[in-house]
Design brief:
Number of helices: 0
Strand content: over 45%
Number of strands: 11
Oligomer: single chain
Distance between the termini: 37 Å
Order of helices and strands: EEEEEEEEEEE
């Protein structure tokens, strides 16, 4: 089981990034996938979660990102995405995906002018 995140980087406030989480080694389409983030000195927190079918009724977001972030999945590509718009400095963190009890290695997102 492996999860590999990509797409992080440095972006100015108000900018956008799209993170990807590529899965392998398990039946990806059968599992919930979540994005978490951890800022320096803070606990890891849930950002968004999507159910296996990806139906909009079963997607959850943290209050801090509602209306700015969108989670989606492509089961044919074994990949989950996190589209992040209107980024703020407080979104700076390492972003991790999680599924089937497994964590990816994380990707750094830095929002700074």
């Amino acid at each position: 089981v492996q999860l590999v995140e990509s797409g992080g980087g440095l972006v100015q406030p108000g900018g956008s990034l799209r993170l990807s989480c590529a899965a392998s080694g398990f039946t990806f389409s059968s599992y919930i996938v979540s994005w978490y983030r951890q800022a320096p000195g803070k606990e890891r927190e849930l950002v968004a979660r999507i159910n296996p079918a990806g139906s909009s009724s079963s997607i959850n977001y943290a209050d801090a990102v509602k209306g700015r972030f969108t989670i989606s999945r492509d089961n044919a590509k074994n990949t989950v995405y996190l589209q992040m718009n209107s980024l703020k400095p407080e979104d700076t963190a390492v972003y991790y995906c999680k599924s089937m009890g497994t964590w990816g290695q994380g990707t750094q997102v830095t929002v700074s002018s």
